[in-house]
Amino acid sequence: MEQCRTTVAKNLIFLCLVITGIFLSCKTFSNELSSISLVQRMQIKKLKNGKMSEMPRFNRQPTYPWKGDLQCERFSVQLAEKDSLIKWPLTSFPGSGVTWTRQMIEGITGFYTGSVYYSDPSPTLNRDGNVTDNTDDPLCGCTILDKDHEATVQVGKQGLDAYFELLHRLGHAGIVHQQYDRRGVLLLRNPMDVIFSFRNWQLAGKTGNASPDAFKGPEWEEIIDYVAYAWADHAIRWIEQIDQGTVLFYERLLGKTAENELRRLLNIIGFKPIDSDRMKCALSHRNRTDHKRHIKNKMLLEPKHRIKLMKSIHQVQQSLRRKGWPTLPIYLYDVHSPDGKI
User: Three-state DSSP class for 111?
Assistant: First the structure.
């Protein structure tokens, strides 16, 4: 009987050790996923037909984004040599014009931008309307900047609960220092414009338009709350955590200040020399329609929604001032009211 008890006790101890080991292994794996979120999002391959799909092959073949323009068609864009460029994130809230901004940066530098999202299409289409054949791999050290929406981009369930899950359970809050050594470029756009682009993107993709019914009702109220909070929270966290980097403003890239804005960016990330002819070509082709909505309906916000979003703008403006960075060009903002007043 005593021998039986001893055997049972040994088995229980062994079982406890096994369970403890499994727990620690799971915890370690979870921590590893949190600390290598870029790899989690990009390098871990997606399952396709039950098999792991392969990453695209590294291909430095150049493409020519401005074919048909006699002044600009000689300029090409291609990947840099592997591990020749520092990893810089271009982070933004979805709907902030990052694809359009990437087009200009690629044209000026001659190097592709990348994306942390698997199979994210190139921002530039060829003359047939197809995506150019470049490799989007932020781990290759061959792209000038890499698109990263961080926790603001969500698959499936949307909203603040999903946002906090990505931030605090999956480690996205630490991406700027864990993955980018506190480097970063933050692209900001008027959230009163972003909210409509974001809703269209949610329901109709990059170039489609959501039904007018999508901009009213309880679900629209939840979207307002989500964008108002997450747009500001994302911006402030990156502003506070970036040691080397800057902020870009979508509205300034639209007007006469675009060249100064882009030169400031390229100076910060250490790209030189800047080709003045490439700059002229990039700016002259700002109106290209790759991945853009062809129909943009003017939509209004209710006063309570404008105030909610203005509070977010105020919070980000204060954060930029504390940092000593350029401030939001609020005077250029469309407040989406009938009379143009808040």
Answer: strand
